[in-house]
Amino acid sequence: MRWMHAAGRGLLVMAVVLTGYVASGARADEGRGTGRGPLTLATAGDLTGYLGPLLDGWNRTHPGEKVTLVELPDSADETHAQMTTDLRGGDRSRFDVLNIDVSWTSEFAAAGWIRPLPRDRFPLRTFLDPVTDTATYDGQLYAVPYVTNAGLLLYRKDVLAKEGVPPPRTWAELERDAKTIAPKYGLDGYAGQFLPYEGLTVNAAEAVYSAGGTILGDEGTRVTVNSDAAREGIGFLARGVREGWIPQRALMYKEEESKQAFQDGRLLFLRNWPYAYVAASAKGSEVAGKVGAVPLPGPDGPGRSVLGGSNLAVNTHARHPDSAARLIAYLTGERVQRQVLTRGALPPVRASIYDDPELIRRFPYLPTLRAAVETASPRPKSPHYDQVSLVVQAVVHDALTGHQTPESAVRRLARELAAISQR
Fold it and tell me: What is the SS3 assignment for 189-213?
């Protein structure tokens, strides 16, 4: 489920009967049943294979509420297209529970496709602080966080050790090392995900956020991107491509391609999700034992990541909303959340897991990841997020390829986002 890393990846009991929750959706359930019963759960393709065993555990102990997994493509754009097409079918929808990218919550809520959820029915206080914000729209909870994520800077610790330099904390240090150290070892300097797709929206937002800027405000109704911070952030990336310490080939990188370049020993620095650390550190990797991870740099110190991951939502027309809520509570419980990390190498939302000494020994990046998540920000919230993302991708890619200056790109972004926000 590659999209769950740009956004992160993954899936979805409470032993409490959620009577109020059921009642709130009773009208939508007319003709489809209420309360408890079988479910379908839609998610992007499970590339790790960890999801089946988690749902098998539920199905063994809940024979009357068995879950059928529907795997959609692992591409974010294709998964989004198939989900929205199905949801537009109203009570003919096939899906009961939806494992959605965190950036889709506002869009799905504004369209009326997913139900509002009662906050007191889920263990929100046990989650890492920022993650619940990704599951809200207009002050209301519309989903429950399941997997979180934050971008990290992976680096070749063997190379930096030979040079006697620490990992970069600022953009200036990253730029210097990418320019001067990488060529000495036959490496490319720095890469992220710069193909025009959702990953580029994430990389661009992180650059803007790290410089102290924002893109949208007030649930997408106010455009805030026309700022010095946005010009600085997009200018930093554009300068890297122009000067060559971001290689031209990185303009074709998504998560997997950039991970493979680092894993094959071709990059000094890589911005990616934590799963790339796990893959690069595994047996058979060219850089196993040589990988470090730190928070993303910013202009004057540590920068700011975009929150990735996925949220679990309930279709407005779910056949058995009580079972849907129970399943979500099961999949966000501590025992299953540990398996999300240990079997799926995905960052859980439960804060206590990040303090477990045994897990930190197995996953040394956990303290760094927790710090990154706790200072991260959501992608721009908007009921038209898919259009917002397409505009950001197109405009920023033009800046990276030199077709527009960062200054003109930011002005164009402001104009085009304003047109979307007025719809």
Answer: EEECCCCCCHHHHHHHHHHHHHCCC
Q: Of 141, 95, 88, 136, which Cα lies nearest the Cα of 112?
A: 88
Q: Tell me the two tokens of residue 283.
A: 């047996």
CB 297 within 8 A of CB 291: no
Whole-number pLDDT of residue 231: 98
Q: How far is CA 20 from the centre of its chain?
A: 31
How far is Cα 317 from Cα 224, in angstroms, rounded to an integer? 36
Paired tokens of 322: 């009580």
The pLDDT value given to residue 20: 36
Q: What is the pLDDT of residue 344?
A: 87
The residue ranges of the chain whose pLDDT is under 70 are 1-34, 47
Tell me the CA distances in angstroms from 305 to 232, 337, 374, 390, one per residue in order. 16, 22, 9, 20
Q: Are strands 307-314 and 67-72 parallel, antiparallel or unpaired?
A: unpaired
Side chain identity at 368, as an amino acid letter? T
Q: Which residues, at least 6 apart from 125, have a Cβ–Cβ distance to it below 8 Å?
A: none
Closest CA to 190 of 140, 259, 246: 246
Q: What is the pLDDT of residue 100?
A: 97
Query: What DSSP assignment string belongs to 246-314?
Result: S-GGGGG--HHHHHHHHHTT-EEEEEE-HHHHHHHHSTT-TTTT-EEEEEPBBSSSB--PBEEEEEEEE
Domains of the chain and CATH, by start: 3-149+308-374 (3.40.190.10), 150-306+379-421 (3.40.190.10)
Non-local (6+) Cβ contacts of 196 within 8 A are 393, 394, 396, 397
Residue type, 287: V
Predicted pLDDT of residue 137 = 93
pTM of the model: 0.86
Q: How far apart are the first and last CA of the chain?
A: 32
Burial class for 166, CB neighbours closer than 10 Å (0-12, 13-18, 19+) = middle
> What pLDDT shows up at residue 34?
58
Phi and psi (nearest 5°) for 348? -75, 165
Cα(288)–Cα(283) distance, integer angstroms = 6
Task: Identify which of 256, 299, 298, 287 has the alpha carbon closest to the alpha carbon of residue 187.
Answer: 287
Mention every residue, 6+ apart, whose C-beta is less than 8 A from residue 144.
Answer: 117, 122, 124, 135, 311, 312, 313, 328, 329, 332
